[in-house]
Amino acid sequence: MNNSVNTLKTPHLFFFTQRFAFMAPLRIVLFTLLTAFITVPSYALDLNSAKSQGLVGETESGYLAAVKGSPAKDVKALISSINQQRKDKYKAIAIKNNISLQAVENRAGEVAIKKTAAGQYIKKSGKWLKK
């Protein structure tokens, strides 16, 4: 009697595992995607969201700075990355136009402050102001 019970269960299990065998790779993909979405928020910060959240602001020197004293790691990384990109561009402009890096930085700071949207922060004369 035990043999007949096992024989009945085996075909059902075989049918079930064969029918849904295609789902194994799907489960791996879903797990990977879910894991990626869990880690995304730490990298999701971009310049516009950081500015609108009041985390970073434009300075007269043409670079970004943290509005509050000790920013989170992702804010520091964003500031560092963007400032490095800006510095590279400023250097190229300075070389191309045969002017000093500082002159390019100052002009870029003026333009960035002018373009900053209302409600975002700018640093003028060493003080943070909400534009």
Keywords:
131 residues, DUF1318 domain-containing protein, globular, transmembrane helix, 4 strands, 4-stranded mixed beta sheet, alpha+beta, YdbL, 2 domains, membrane
How much of the polypeptide forms β-strand, as a percent range?
5-15%
- Uncertain segments of ≥5 residues (pLDDT<50)? 4-8, 36-43
Specify Rg, calculated over alpha carbons: 28 Å
| Overall strand count | 4
- Specify the helix fraction band: 55-70%
Largest sheet: 4 strands, mixed
What class would the helix/strand composition place it in?
alpha+beta
Dominant shape: globular
Strand order of the largest sheet: 2-1-3-4
SS field, number of helical segments = 5
Report on this structure:
With 131 residues, the protein is an alpha+beta fold. It has 2 domains: 2-42; 47-130, no CATH class. It is 62% helix and 11% strand. The protein contains 5 helices and 4 strands. A 4-stranded mixed sheet has the order 2-1-3-4. A hairpin with a 2-residue loop joins strand 3 and strand 4. Helix 4 (73-97) crosses helix 5. The longest helix has 25 residues, at 73-97. It is globular. The protein starts with a helix and ends with a strand.
Annotate the secondary structure layout.
Layout: H1 2-19, H2 23-39, H3 47-52, E1 56-59, E2 64-66, H4 73-97, H5 101-115, E3 121-124, E4 127-130
Parallel strand pairs: 1-3
Antiparallel strand pairs: 1-2, 3-4
Quick structural summary:
The chain has 131 residues and is α+β, with helices and mostly antiparallel strands. The chain has helices at residues 2-19, 23-39, 47-52, 73-97, 101-115; strands spanning 56-59, 64-66, 121-124, 127-130. Helices cover 62% and strands 11% of the residues.
